[in-house]
Amino acid sequence: MSEKDVRISRKKPVFPVRPALQKYLKTYQRDAKLPLTYGDLRLFDEAFPVMNKNGRDSLWESPLYPQGRLEQIHEGLKEIYAELKASGNLRIVEHKYIDRIDYCTFGNTHPFRIRIVNRLNDVYDYFYVKQADASRIYGLELEEILSPNQVNYLVDGETLIEEHIAGIPGDVFAVEQLYKTEYNPTRIAKEFVKFNERCLIMLLGDMRAYNFVMQVTPDFDDIQFRIRAIDFDQQFYEGNLKVYLPQFFKENFPYVKLCMEQLTEKTVQQYRQEERSSIVHRVRSERHRLTDLRDVSNQETLTTPQNIAMLKNAMASHFEDPNYLQCVTMTDMIELNIKNIIRQVKL
Q1: How far apart are CA 77 and CA 56, in angstroms?
Q2: How far apart are CA 180 and CA 285, in angstroms?
Q3: Which residues, including other chains, have CB under 8 Å from residue 130's CB and lie 6 or more apart?
Q4: Residues 191-226 pLDDT 10s
Q5: 31: which strand partners?
Q6: Which residues lie below 8 Å from residue 145, measured CB to CB, with a gap of 6+?
Q7: Of 62, 73, 63, which is closest to residue 37 (Cα–Cα)?
Q8: Which among 149, 109, 100 is positioned nearest to 129, based on CA atoms?
Q9: What distance in Å separates the CA atoms of residue 201 and residue 156, rounded to the nearest whole number?
Q10: Which domain of life is it from (predicted)?
Q11: What's the chain's Rg over C-alpha atoms?
Q12: Nearest Cα to 79, choosing from 37, 23, 132?
């Protein structure tokens, strides 16, 4: 595999939240009237780089705001945190303060990362303020509906608020913890296979190791693992099929290598089938919401005709199913993915 095999469009446009999607968000209680917008946070005078613990540039910057606006910004961010975590109940922020605001120029949505601290015990949390991107919102919704994970976010016009997803960054875990003796390597390999399968079905792209986290949970007789996506910027935009298969990114080779060491073709197929069955159960319980999401997204232009044509041909070849050639949108391909796994589960 070479880098040219998996191309990512760094110039992917930010798609606006149109009225139909806004109506959907209101129906499912994802909309909010916020005291502060993404544009408000962009009005800083200057910024200085934030270094990581090793003294290297973290790609985040710390913006400097006029002193007269800083208190207003901090109060607005506390209200946003209360809305995200407690439906606007300000009691949860009575003893909290905004410790820092960081800004990232890397990526499509140029997020702000907010660190909020409880002054009574120094426990802190993070949340993110981003430019609202319709394709990213569809990715968050599909994650909520089709994956085993819950996501918490709010949208107000051009502003997107996201809860922090805790976990060990996938690239850090691969270097520092992948082969820890107390970990069962087969469980990690199994989780990567399931994650790989889920990304293809959902058409969630660019899941390189630094775009997902590993959640490690001690159980009564072993340690459980779950891979969670944390970046949804490349939701059904690219035309290259490999973009939607984490196994093809060179950054994920440690996980691929572990799978080759620990799993047989038979067990890989077993774990893929387990993930498909889990998705079918979630589809059945959320079928009305999924239908609403399909109807809204099919009204929008969220990629290029060239990308759709390229991907549907690749999907038809990959699955040996000519029905993909009849798909008109990326959403059509996800719907056909789901229909196919429902048929397989019934067999």
Answers
A1: 28
A2: 38
A3: 38, 109, 110, 111, 112, 136, 159, 160, 161, 162
A4: 999 999 999 999 999 999 999 999 999 988 889 999
A5: 155
A6: 282, 283, 286, 289, 290, 293
A7: 73
A8: 109
A9: 29
A10: Bacteria
A11: 21
A12: 37
Quote the tokens at residue 233: 């910027």
Rounded to an integer, the average pLDDT of 140-152 is 96
- Cα→Cα distances 70→77, 78, 112, 159, Å: 11, 12, 15, 19
**Positive/negative CA dihedral, 330, 336, 341, 342:** positive
DSSP state, 92? G
The confidence score (pLDDT) of residue 219 equals: 86
178 and 138 Cβ atoms separated by less than 8 Å: no
309-335 average pLDDT score: 97
Torsion angle of the four alpha carbons 140, 146, 147, 148, in this order, in degrees rounded to the nearest 10: 120
Backbone angles phi, psi at 61, to 5 degrees: -125, 155
Q: How many other C-beta atoms can be found within 10 angstroms of the C-beta atom of residue 101?
A: 22
pLDDT of residue 51: 80
- Amino acid identity at 307: N
Starting at the edge strand found earlier in the chain, the sheet holding 223-229 runs 168-169, 212-218, 223-229
d(CA 186, CA 179): 11
In the numeric block, the tokens 């300000």 are attached to: 90
- pLDDT digits 0-9 by tens, 50-100: 887 777 777 899 999 988 899 999 999 999 999 999 999 999 999 999 999
- 224-256 burial: b if 16+ Cβ within 10 Å, else e: ebbbbbbbbbbbbbbbbbbbbbbbbbebbebbb
The angle at the Cα of 309, spanning 208 to 288, to the nearest 5 degrees, equals 75
Q: Give pTM, 2 decimals.
A: 0.93
Q: Alpha helices of the chain — where are they, by DSSP H?
A: 19-27, 38-41, 67-86, 134-146, 170-176, 185-202, 253-262, 265-285, 287-297, 305-319, 330-346
Q: Are strands 46-51 and 223-229 parallel, antiparallel or unpaired?
A: unpaired
Q: Which two tokens stand for residue 176?
A: 């520092």
